[in-house]
Amino acid sequence: MGKRCVVMFCSNSCHTGQSVHVFPKNPVLRRQWIRFVEVKRANFKLTENSVICGAHFEKECMSNALKIAMGYSVRPLLSPDAVPTIQPAPTEEQMAKARRACRSKRPRDSQATTSTIQTKVPRKSRAVEKRETDRVSTRFLFICNSAKEKKVPILMCWQTLWSMGNNNNNKNAVLFQYFLLKTRQNI
C-alpha cells in the first residue's frame, strides 16, 4: 500500500499519479511543513510514514519543472527549501464526513456527567495569598497580645477566635484555626 498525503481533505497518494514527498530533515523546514498540515488538522502527529503530495506545492518549488515540461523527466523533485502553500478546498461530501466525525466525538447531554464538567475556580496570585496570610497572622497576634494585656483568660480568647474563623467560611478561617492550634500547643 502506498503512502497517502497527510493534508486534510486530500486523498492523493503515489497510486493516484501524484508525487509524494517525505518531510525534510531540516528542523526549521520540517516545522513549517507541520504548521501547514496543522492549519486544518490540529492534532496532527508526525510519523516516519508521513508525506505531502506535490499538489500542495507551487510549480516554482519543483527544481526540475522545466525538464518535466519538456518531457526529459517524469518524476518531480522538490527544491531543498520548498514549503507547501496550497490548501485543498474540501468537497461537500468531505465536509459532511468531517462534521459527522466531529459530532460523534462530542459527548451527548445524556452522557455528560458532573465528573466531566469542571468549573474553573479563580486562583489568586501568590503575592495576594501571602499578603492575606500576613494580614491574618498579624490580626491574630494582635488579638492574642491584647487579650494577655487585659488578662482575659486565654481559653476565652481562643474560643472567640475559633468562632470568628468558623464564620468566615474562607481561607482566613483555615488560617485562624491553624494559628490558634499552634498557639494553644505553646500555652
TrEMBL record:
Residues 110-119 have a biased composition (Polar residues). Residues 101-130 are annotated as: Disordered. It is found in: Nucleus, Nucleoplasm. One of its GO terms (biological process) is endothelial cell proliferation. GO terms for molecular function: DNA-binding transcription factor activity; sequence-specific DNA binding; zinc ion binding. DNA-binding transcription regulator that regulates endothelial cell proliferation and G1/S cell-cycle progression. Specifically binds the 5'-[AT]NTNN[GT]GGCA[AGT]-3' core DNA sequence and acts by modulating expression of pRB-E2F cell-cycle target genes. This is THAP domain-containing protein 1. It comes from Oryzias melastigma. The lineage of its organism: Eukaryota, Metazoa, Chordata, Craniata, Vertebrata.
